[in-house]
Hints:
The protein has about 170 residues and is an all-beta fold.
Amino acid sequence: MKTIQNPSNSKFMVSQLNPTSTSWIGRYNNEMNDTKRGQTFFSTADVAIQGIDIYTSLVLHPAKITLTVHPFNDNTKTWGLPILSTSVFLQVRDSENWKSISTPGLHLYKGQHYGFRLECPQSLIGLGEVVGTNSMLISIDGQEWKFSNSDPKSQPYSFFSLAFKIAVSD
Length: 170
């Protein structure tokens, strides 16, 4: 396992580091099925968000990845409408690195749950994932989610989390 260091002096409100597995988004070659991933989390402060950092395990081909941020109802496990949509272009050299996705103008409110979704219909991208167990639980208040156009019902995973960091402004 590769230990991940914080390369900047950014402050992080929420982070799940040190991926132990890979979760996939996008589609392989000419498949019709487009797989998306999401991650929910709890906001511990009223704060402006600089960006969301994701760990890209493997980038097979250069492609644009789109991130949307949503309010999330933790009681009903439902995603609200996007409050932000942004994208970044990934290169093959971005494999096994943290990639920061800027979130201009995004403000989160203390005590609220949020989620972000990642999609990449032009390529297949491996995202870092942390796998928990009964004896080693995931350290955040949130879940990884899987979305697919061939299965409209999304699936949450309690023992999985994407490797991510929520960078906050000073």
